[in-house]
Design a protein that fits this description.
The protein contains ten helices and 103 strands. The longest helix has 28 residues. The N and C termini lie far apart (192 Å).
Length: 1479
């Protein structure tokens, strides 16, 4: 066919049904239809233009299919529609990036018209313009309908793209009576999940702010608003609004509230108009918390009762896992039998772990039930290897590329996980190929090299040093295909078959080199790889393009092609083999058959490193008791964590350090209930977070918690009744609470109130101290007054609510002679054939004391006439063991008391009590341990909070510990007999509080006691005990003694001496002895030789008892002992002549005198003894020689002794107080002192170095003596302040003494001074203030750390000292300023009669004193005879004019001020001159 084909030639062709069918599959969106129609219209217009000559086709161009007329003339050509529609579909797929689900059934449409044989039956038809336009209009109408259908399908398909909210079930308007409640229901669909809000007359309803009026609930897309107690104001228009990112939708309903009297037909809540009933759903036989292992099959089921039963009506049964709706698959199957809903999980995996919820939807509402399923890991194939990863998923699939993600397992094994291997398998084969050569640490990996159009599945394995884990569960199948093709597949056909195909031709792009890719970016970067993403170029030709990726190190221009051998077909690529820590730039080139295009713009510098940090450690774990097998664990969220996967929780028995995972699937919440725990275990918990980068560090450990049921407050007591009454008191009793709250009832509290004329008063407390029994004597009541009582029970959790009040009980005289019923009936030791009944005496004894009891029993199912007494005669004990019971039968028991008058009223029947032995019941075991100790052991596995073991003898609690010692540890209690004898015979019982009656007893008879004592003896003496095991000691001359002492033995005890398995007998080398009076076994050896190295053993036989003690002397130990033996022998030789028994050393006496001492032995008169100092001999007559004394073979050199020259000359020694006080020791005494002994038998010497370290050691000892001699700090108040002081025996300037106040050193100042006076160490505080209060300490250096003497100068000590200081200060001031006569007055004045006497006295006082002159103790007054003057405040004078004999007498000058009074007496004597005698 010839002719030139140009762009302006177009035509319409009709093809066969086969080509049209293919075209239908290729068209994906209505836009494609519209574009095709537009192109068809354009082509039709061109067709009516003039015909032009056509040229031949280019060889490079793809074959075009020509349109010919009936004369075989070429009238035009077209290109396949799929080329343009392909671009449209690709653009649509790129705009819908959130669609990530993979499709199956990809059909390649690229070569739709590539084979000529497909067009053999093609029919070409020419149409007019009018027909074409009409057909185009029809196509537009059809496209609109298809678009509407697709939009509806997307809304109904959960896997479709996002869509706005839409109310599938709208709320219905309702009319209700006033005071009733009404509920509005609706169902809202949409993606993302819409947020729903309720409005009343367009005003938002805040249900949380008004919980008493509104209740709003949203669960599983079902939303409801409940209006409580409707009133007339609730009549309104109610609107529900759903909102998400795609838009908002609303629905309205009217509520009308009718008052009584108005006619309205009310329908029950949830009434079904279709069936005319209200369905009520009940779920019974519920599945409990389930546990399974990987690989098992598990079924969950519940029985569902829907009432009433309506034929042909089936409720909707839905199953959810972690709030996600489950659908049938190869792993999950569901079944509804009409009564039972069953969910079967085939081949369990960790992905199946979670909270499972069954939801039953009816036309009247819904009912749900939830429980948790735990899936444990399968056994690992290699010990210590990690367990399998989980939740493997595929994302971002392209033609040759897919991203695989997974979650890390809970258990890493014996070593941390090093990385993961990803395997792939092509669907249709069974071969698994490993995708990565080296393990990847990041839980996300891009897999490349896929073949377009093929389907794959993936799995992941974890790797550690111990080995590889099992593979994970296989991922869902994913197809390697273009996302646009996948989107077209999901969209479905765009139009039905019309029998006609229209073709148009656009500008040919064959042979065009593709352009640059756009939007190149790094979408993911780790230290293992970098993922690039871009958009294909706009200009790329009709054929597909491939991509080459290039890289270069940032800062350089050296570009390297990454995928030269295998170009990428997808706009995604993962670059591996990059240097960690370096930065790279990347760019992409496109290529097709026409060539390679230009490179894209490079990316910014990207550093090869993990950009996702490990999560931080979660907050501390808190564990709370929940049930007997579960614990609630909560923790704080990890802070600043990105892309958190969840948390793993682990538990461990306290102290074991063996950690067990609580969950094998990570949870995102911060609260988890760990089930399946062992009751009684003491556990600690910890939590770790996980994201794609790995695990966080563990949280802080929780406090240890014991796995057992939590304790709650008990229920109230019941059945209050009157047992006895008198004029002023009543006895009431009651039944214990039916529910004890998991703890024993420890007491009851009784309240009362009066009842007068049917009017009750206020409640008052009857007892403030809890009563332990179930009866109480209410005293101080008023006669003929009615009372009501209520009782509260108390356990360790608190006080219960009050019981129902009793009936009105009248307090009046009750004349009954027989005793009342006993109290406090309870049973212990319930077994299949027996039980023990205990009770307390009645509160009312009748007219005479109770002298016996009767116990009755009957089966619970029997009538009241079936009571029988279990014994013939009355018993005085308040307990009875009832035997002969039938296993599994329930019984009632009662007790009645008797006295001399008769038998009283029986108690109310106790029961029903089933005769059965509970699983796990233990009995008391008699035990004799290895030491012969006899004890009783009782164990309990049901210990509760606050449970205790209570031991009793003859059912009376043991309080005397002289006979028994109780030891309890955990759930085990042991009662040890201190000295088992006949006094211990009796019935011993033990009960455990806060349990369901756990108890047991044991009867100790004389026969059993004798057997136990025999066993005790046998256990005590099966082996001969040693008081001292074999030991060794060295004796004189280096002799070696092996010895041991036997604790208990008989006269028949024999000893065998063994050395290295050879029996030793009495011979020259060995000397043996067994002193049976002391039990000491001895073996002597004169010396140790090399052949004596080995094991020495004493074997004892005493009847059936045997004993052995050994000593091993080998190696270093033997060598040391041998040297010591040789040394002792040499010492013995040395001691044969003059020698030192004790070598020269030093001693500091309590008086701080330093003595150099040595003890000598074997001395004769001829023995020369010489002392040396610094190698110079101390000669007799030297000053130093006077310091040497010898007494009782002890030679002493007194360094501190003072020697005077007069002493040496034989003159009198000065007195101690006259002697100069020289220091006890000083540096002039330093030197090397040596003593030598010598005579014909031998010689010996001893040296002491009193320099350097030796001098320092002596001084430190001096300091120690001084420090320890210090007295406790005392306090002394003076007129200047307060002084703290302590005395020492001696003081030297080298002694360091410090004073501390409140642990801080006191600095020397004018006000605070410290020092030494003689042997007194003092601290003076002048003018003390409040700041000087505190704890003082004197720190005296003692050669090591120091000795402290503390004094607390606070409180009363401070007050007393400070007051004394103020007193002394005031006294000193008073003494200085008090009035006194300083002088000037004589003692006696003799004066001649007629003379004038003038005396002046000097006085002092501040303030100036008052002056008074006295004569014979009478005050003188200034007059003509006496002239009294006081001048300048200092001079007091008296003048007596013309004295006479009457002026003779005793005078005194008295001065006085506020500080005191003083009188200076003097005598005046007047004489006659002629007589010369005194008058």
């Amino acid at each position: 066919m010839s002719g030139s084909l140009e762009k302006q030639h177009h035509s319409h062709h009709e093809s066969s049904h086969k080509q049209t069918s293919r075209l239908e599959k290729s068209v994906t969106q209505s836009q494609t239809v519209k574009k095709s129609i537009r192109r068809t219209l354009r082509a039709t217009e061109v067709t009516h233009k003039g015909e032009e000559t056509l040229t031949t086709l280019s060889k490079k161009a793809k074959r075009n299919y020509l349109a010919v007329d009936t004369d075989s003339n070429v009238i035009g050509y077209v290109v396949p529609v799929f080329r343009s529609s392909h671009l449209v579909a690709r653009d649509l797929a790129e705009a819908q990036e959130e669609v990530k689900e993979e499709g199956i059934g990809y059909v390649v449409m690229k070569n739709l018209f590539s084979k000529e044989e497909d067009f053999v039956n093609m029919k070409v038809e020419k149409k007019t313009r009018k027909a074409t336009i009409r057909e185009s209009a029809d196509r537009l109408s059809l496209g609109k309908k298809i678009h509407e259908k697709q939009e509806f399908t997307k809304k109904m398909n959960p896997d479709s793209l996002t869509h706005p909210p839409e109310f599938m079930v709208k709320p219905k308007g309702q009319t209700v009576w006033e005071g009733k409640s009404v509920t509005l229901h609706c169902t809202c669909a949409g993606w993302p999940k819409p947020r729903v809000a309720w409005y009343k007359n367009n005003v938002p309803i805040d249900a949380k702010a008004h919980p008493d009026k509104y209740t709003a609930e949203s669960e599983y897309n079902m939303h409801s608003l409940k209006i409580h107690s409707c009133d007339f104001n609730d009549t309104a228009e109610y609107r529900v609004s759903g909102l998400n990112i795609k838009g908002e939708s609303s629905s309205f309903a009217h509520v009308v509230v009718k008052r009584h009297g108005e006619k309205v037909v009310a329908k029950p809540h949830g009434f079904s108009d279709e069936f005319g009933v209200t369905f009520k759903t009940t779920i019974i036989d519920k599945f409990a918390v389930a546990f399974g292992h990987e690989g098992e099959t598990m079924s969950l089921g519940c029985t569902v009762i829907v009432y009433p039963v309506v034929k042909r009506y089936t409720p909707e049964v839905l199953w959810y896992r972690d709030s996600v709706l489950l659908k049938p698959s190869k792993w999950v199957s569901m079944h509804w039998s009409g009564e039972k809903a069953t969910l079967t999980l085939a081949h369990l995996n960790k992905e199946d772990e979670g909270l499972y919820t069954l939801r039953i939807n009816t036309q009247s509402g819904f009912e749900t039930y939830s429980s948790y399923v735990y899936v444990k890991d399968a056994e690992v194939e290699v010990e210590g290897a990690p367990v399998a990863p989980l939740d493997v998923k595929c994302h971002d699939a392209n033609k040759d590329y897919v991203v695989v993600t997974w979650k890390q397992p809970a258990v890493e094994g014996s070593s941390p996980i090093m990385g993961y291997y990803i395997d792939r398998c092509e669907i249709g084969t069974t071969h698994w190929a490993q995708c990565n050569e080296t393990p990847v640490k990041y839980a996300r990996f891009p897999v490349t090299g896929l073949v377009e159009g093929r389907s794959y599945a993936f799995r992941v394995r974890a790797i550690s040093k111990a080995g590889a884990s099992r593979p994970s569960r296989v991922s869902d199948t994913v197809v390697a295909m273009d996302p646009s093709d996948r989107a077209r597949q999901r969209a479905g056909p765009s139009a039905p078959w019309t029998g006609m195909i229209k073709f148009t031709e656009e500008e040919p792009t064959v042979g065009v080199v593709p352009g640059e890719p756009t939007d190149l970016a790094v979408i993911e970067a780790t230290k293992s790889y970098v993922v690039l993403s871009w958009k294909p170029p706009a200009q790329r030709g009709h054929e597909g393009v491939m991509y080459y990726i290039e890289k270069c190190v940032s800062g350089s221009d050296n570009w390297q092609r990454v995928n030269t051998g295998m170009p990428s077909r997808s706009p995604r690529f993962a670059v591996f083999d990059l240097a960690e820590g370096k930065s790279y730039n990347f760019r992409v080139r496109c290529s097709n058959s026409a060539g390679v295009g230009e490179a894209s713009a490079p990316t910014e510098a990207t550093k090869v490193a993990d950009k996702l940090d490990l999560p931080s450690a979660p907050g501390p774990a808190v564990a709370i008791r929940n049930t007997a097998s579960s614990v609630v664990v909560s923790w704080g969220k990890s802070k600043d964590v990105k892309h958190l996967v969840g948390y793993y929780i682990e538990h461990s028995v306290e102290g074991s350090n063996v950690w067990v995972p609580c969950n094998n699937k990570p949870v995102k919440c911060t609260r988890f209930v760990s089930h399946g725990l062992n009751t009684g275990d003491k556990l600690v918990f910890r939590v770790k977070a996980v994201n794609a980068s790995g695990y966080s560090t563990h949280s802080a450990l929780s406090e240890a918690v014991i796995v057992k049921a939590g304790v709650a407050i008990s229920g109230p007591p019941s059945g209050i009744k009157m047992e006895e009454r008198v004029r002023d008191y009543m006895v009431i009793s009651w039944k214990p609470p039916a529910k004890t709250g998991g703890a024993d009832i420890v007491g009851y509290y009784v309240d009362y109130r009066t009842v007068k004329g049917g009017v009750t008063g206020q409640w008052h407390e009857m007892n403030t101290k809890a009563v332990t029994g179930t009866s109480y004597k209410a005293e101080n009541l008023k006669e003929n007054v009615f009372y009501q009582f209520q009782v509260r029970a108390s356990n360790m959790a608190g006080v219960s609510g009050a019981s129902l009040p009793s009936a009105g009980l009248e307090c009046k005289e009750w004349t009954v002679a027989v005793p009342g019923p006993p109290c406090g009936l309870h049973v212990l030791e319930v077994r299949e054939t027996s039980l023990v009944l205990l009770w307390e005496p009645p509160t009312f004894n009748g007219r005479s004391p109770v002298d016996g009891y009767y116990v009755d029993i009957k089966e619970a199912a029997a009538d009241e006439n079936s009571w029988i007494c279990v014994h013939d005669r009355s018993i005085k004990l308040m307990y009875k063991k009832v035997t002969g019971l039938k296993a599994g039968t329930a019984y009632h028991l009662r007790v009645c008391a008797r006295n001399v008058v008769g038998v009283g009223k029986p108690t109310k029947g106790l029961g029903p009590i089933v005769a059965e032995t509970r699983p796990g019941t233990n009995e008391i075991i008699m035990d004799v341990d290895d030491d012969g100790v006899i004890s009783m052991i009782f164990e309990c596995s049901e210990m509760g909070e606050g449970s205790e073991f209570i031991w009793s003898k003859n059912y009376k609690e043991l309080t005397d510990t002289s006979r028994l010692t109780i030891e309890t540890s955990g759930g085990r209690s042991r009662a040890i007999f201190n000295h088992a004898s006949v006094e211990d015979l009796g019935i011993y019982s033990c009960k455990v509080t806060n349990t369901a009656g756990v108890s047991a007893s044991y009867t100790l008879t004389e026969e059993v006691l004798k057997r136990l004592l025999d066993m005790s003896f046998d256990h005590k003496f099966p082996v001969i005990p040693f008081k001292s095991e074999m030991a060794i000691e060295l004796q004189e001359k280096g002799r070696v003694r092996f010895w041991a002492q036997v604790a208990k033995f008989t006269a028949n005890c024999q000893v065998e001496y063994v050395f290295n398995d050879t029996t030793v007998t009495q011979e020259q080398k060995y000397t043996v002895n067994f002193d049976k009076s002391t039990g000491i076994i001895e073996m002597y050896m004169d010396s140790l030789e090399v052949t004596d190295e080995g094991t020495y053993t004493f074997d004892l036989v005493d009847g059936k008892a045997k004993g052995r003690t050994s000593l091993v002397l080998i190696g270093e130990e033997f060598a040391v002992l041998q040297k010591k033996s040789e040394f002792e022998r040499a010492e013995w030789v040395r001691r044969q002549g003059p020698h030192f028994v004790e070598y020269l050393g030093f001693e500091v006496t309590p008086e701080c005198n330093v003595h150099l001492k040595c003890k000598i032995g074997n001395i004769k008169a001829e023995t020369e003894i010489s002392w040396f100092k610094d190698s110079y001999e101390i000669q007799e007559g030297d000053e130093e020689a006077e310091k040497i004394t010898t007494e009782d073979a002890v030679m002493t050199f007194n360094i501190a002794k003072s020697v005077f020259k007069k002493d040496r000359e034989g003159k009198k020694k000065p007195d101690a107080e006259d002697a100069p006080k020289n220091p006890k020791i000083s540096k002039k005494d330093a030197g090397t002192y040596e003593v030598k002994l010598k005579d014909e038998r031998g010689k010996d010497h001893s040296k002491f170095d009193l320099t350097g370290a030796g001098y320092e050691a002596v001084m430190n000892e001096v300091f120690r003596v001084i420090a320890n001699s210090s007295t406790e700090v005392s306090i002394l108040s003076t007129e200047h302040g307060i002084m703290l002081y302590s005395f020492v025996v001696y003081h030297t300037e080298e002694l360091r003494v410090g004073w501390l106040l409140k642990e801080s050193k006191i600095s020397h100042s004018e006000r605070v001074q410290c020092g030494v006076t003689g042997e007194q160490l003092w601290l003076k505080i002048n003018e003390p203030t409040e700041k000087d209060k505190g704890k003082y300490a004197m720190d005296i250096f003692d050669g090591q750390s120091g000795v402290k003497r503390a004094f607390d100068l606070t409180g009363q000590a401070w007050e007393d000292a400070f007051e004394e200081f103020k007193r002394l200060k005031a006294a000193a001031i008073a003494e200085r300023n008090r009035a006194r006569v300083v002088g000037g007055l004589p003692d006696v004045v003799t004066i001649q009669e007629g003379k004038s006497l003038n005396l002046t006295g000097n006085v002092w006082g501040d303030p100036a004193p008052e002056v008074t002159w006295l004569k014979n103790d009478r005050e003188l007054v200034s007059d003509a005879h006496y002239t009294l003057k006081f001048e300048h405040g200092k001079f007091a004078s008296i003048t007596i004019a013309a004295v006479s004999t009457v002026d003779s007498g005793k005078y005194a000058l008295q001065v006085k001020n506020k500080y005191g009074t003083e009188a200076m007496p003097f005598t005046v004597s007047v004489y006659f001159p002629e007589e010369g005698a005194k008058v």
